[in-house]
Amino acid sequence: MATDKRPLSPHLQVYKPQLTSVLSIMHRATGVVLSVGSLLLVYWLISAAIGPEAYEKAQHVLGSMLGLLVLFGWTWALFYHLCNGIRHLYWDSGRGYDIPTAYKTGKMVLATSAALTFICWVIAV
Q: Residues with Cβ < 8 Å from 19, sequence gap 6 or more?
């Protein structure tokens, strides 16, 4: 019989969040955000197909401060998920698994997704 008082399985109180685990969770979360955000795209396209009044209302909703904030977040989620997906393709080649490279590419994903989001919004606005 074990007299050890340690937990039987790992749990969140044991581990400190690391860049790799946070990026993994963010990749999954941005996938969900992109799925839900695609409904906004469908709403916008359907409103355009219905007629000018519906389209004007959709433009008003999406052009509001909250709408722009949601679109900005959706844009960042798109670029983050894209960049991290490319990182996963790099891993699929069997490279980049060592800790220094994983951290370096993770930081590159964060920087690149932020830069692409910024560039996209500068061009769009």
A: 102, 103, 106, 107
